[in-house]
Amino acid sequence: MTALRTRVLSGIQPSGTKHLGNYFGAIKQHIELAASFPGEAYYFIADFHALTTLRDADELRAATLELARTYLALGLDPDKALLFRQSDVPEVTELAWLLATVTGMGLLERAHGYKDKLQRGVKPTVGLFTYPVLMAADILIYDATLVPVGKDQIQHVEMTQDMATHFNETYGMGKELLLRPEFRLSEASYVTGTDGQKMSTSYGNTLPLFESGKRLKKLVGGIVTDSTPLGEALDPERCNVYALLKLFLDAPALERVREHYRTARRDGEPFGYGHAKLLLAECIERQFAPARARREHLLQHPEEVEAVLRRSAERARIAARATLERCKTACGLR
Ligand code: ADP
Ligand code: TRP
Fold it and tell me: What is the rounded CA–CA span in Å between residue 127 and residue 36?
């Protein structure tokens, strides 16, 4: 079987409120890819995977719905892309078993993701260890060809390629039962947090999407800057506020801001970090205003979110069943 079309797929962990790093590092590309490959984008909320680290049922349910709302609010078009819960397609766990039987222990033992999680104190369960097998099943069951991921997930996609090859060699009799996917690393892969480190939920340095008004100003006000007094020249390249402004402003607007930094003046008035922060808060507020309004609407209409999740899962299951049948027949289970 050779892929004649591009099918995009990614799984997203339902964990807390998404932030600017998640948007510019992942979500934005997902939405753009869905527009570029209408009908061929499969996005799912990785709730099976979330169970390896999240043990609170209410929290998982709430995080799952919030993630679905986030994608829809930010503009994912549910007529062009599928958005579903991983667990609504239980066939993936069956394929994961078939893959597990052809996957060497050594392959999983080399996984950086597993080692990183142990270091962060996550309990070493069998589920955490075999996480990459379920992830491979997620990708392979939909015949996905392109998997947009962050850097930390590249190895998992490479392991998926290996599992597809092993499975094809074992059961394919010269045919490609499973398609080998490729990963795609997003371009804007580094968003700075309020403390100057990489923005991440685990560092508590995030600017959450959908924040506005006073709370947003307060969070932006907390961005770490040096103690240059108002009126003295500032270096934009060493400023955490400027690093974030770059995500929002076009080249001419950025050049004007650089000039304000260098001269410490704007329109004849002094310009300092406080002014840069206000500008950033305005940019965030403005850019996400339509998404905030759509999210409010979806909060009032949870049935609309649920309908998208269900409809998408039904369509995803059709693709999943076809692959699973093909594989089960090849293994002698049919
Ligand atoms: P967190 O670090 O907040 O837990 P995740 O690890 O769940 O975020 O990341 C989800 C997605 O968002 C990944 O694709 C990841 O690459 C992207 N992402 C997260 N933080 C950033 C960041 N600071 N800059 C760019 N992309 C990011
Ligand atoms: N492991 C991914 C993450 O933590 C989530 C995920 C699960 C995924 N299944 C996937 C990503 C399949 C891409 C394809 O971000």
Answer: 35
Confidence at 186, pLDDT banded by 50, 70, 90: confident
Task: Tell whether 77 and 127 lie within a shared domain.
Answer: yes
The reply to whether 1 falls in a domain is no
Q: Is 273 found in the same domain as 246?
A: yes
Q: Residue 308 sits in which domain range?
A: 7-191+302-331
Given this model, what pLDDT does residue 2 score?
Answer: 58
- Residues 21, 78 within the same domain: yes
Q: How far is CA 275 from CA 213, 261, 271, 281, in A?
A: 16, 10, 6, 10
- CB count in 10 Å sphere of residue 229: 8
Same structural domain, 180 and 289: no
Q: Which two tokens stand for residue 275?
A: 């002014």
Neighbours of 168 (CB within 10 A): 20
What integer is the mean pLDDT of 244-250?
Answer: 96
Task: Compute the distance between CA of residue 107 and CA of residue 65 in angstroms, rounded to an integer.
Answer: 34
Among 8, 18, 22, 53, the mutation site with the greatest number of ligand 1 atoms within 8 A of its Cβ is 22
pLDDT in the model for residue 173: 92
- Taken in order 233, 238, 240, 246, the sign of the CA dihedral is positive
Tell me the C-alpha to C-alpha distance, in Å, between residue 125 and each of 95, 114, 254: 20, 10, 48
Q: Do residues 183 and 308 share a domain?
A: yes
Is pLDDT of 270 > 60?
yes
Ligand 2 pocket mutation, candidates 44, 87, 112, 138, criterion most atoms within 8 A of CB: 138
